[in-house]
Design brief:
With 140 residues, the chain is an alpha+beta fold. It has a 5-stranded antiparallel β-sheet with strand order 1-2-3-5-4, with helices on one face.
Length: 140
């Protein structure tokens, strides 16, 4: 897409720090890292969100994420790793081009993503589960 920042990075029109590239994916350093080693895995094919992306591109992105995560572990020895993916403004997606965040984490690094564990309403979970099963076509 002509005005997409990640497509411009893919096409070499905007500089980036590339970490890895293959036929379907590109991994770059995030220019606003949460922690040292924060990378983004992009699909080369433009798709705004997971809803528009081709399954083969999603599979390639996860495979690249695993490869880069292993390199992050070898190079940085983090205590953990967040793999995050956002879709749409309500989910805080800032660039409308499918991407995965790979964020090395260290115990007590002072960063967020923690939320309180609150038991769900069982009746509501069952109702929503039924809606999801129906939307999936009844498959198990």
């Amino acid at each position: 897409m002509a005005d997409c920042v990640f497509c411009k990075i893919r096409d070499g029109q905007i500089p980036s720090t590339k970490i890895y590239e293959d036929e379907r994916t590109l991994c770059i350093m995030d220019i606003n890292p949460l922690n040292a080693g924060h990378c983004l895995v992009l699909t080369k094919a433009h798709a705004a969100t997971i809803y528009e992306a081709e399954v083969v591109d999603l599979q390639a992105a996860v495979a690249t994420a695993q490869r880069v995560a292993a390199a992050q572990r070898r190079a940085l020895n983090p205590d953990g790793l967040n793999m995050l993916q956002a879709n749409g403004p309500a989910a805080f997606q800032s660039v409308p081009h499918f991407h995965l965040h790979l964020i090395p984490r260290w115990t007590n690094d002072g960063k967020g993503f923690d939320w309180k564990v609150v038991p769900g309403d069982r009746a509501q979970m069952m109702k929503v589960g039924e809606k999801l099963r129906a939307a999936l076509g009844g498959g198990h």
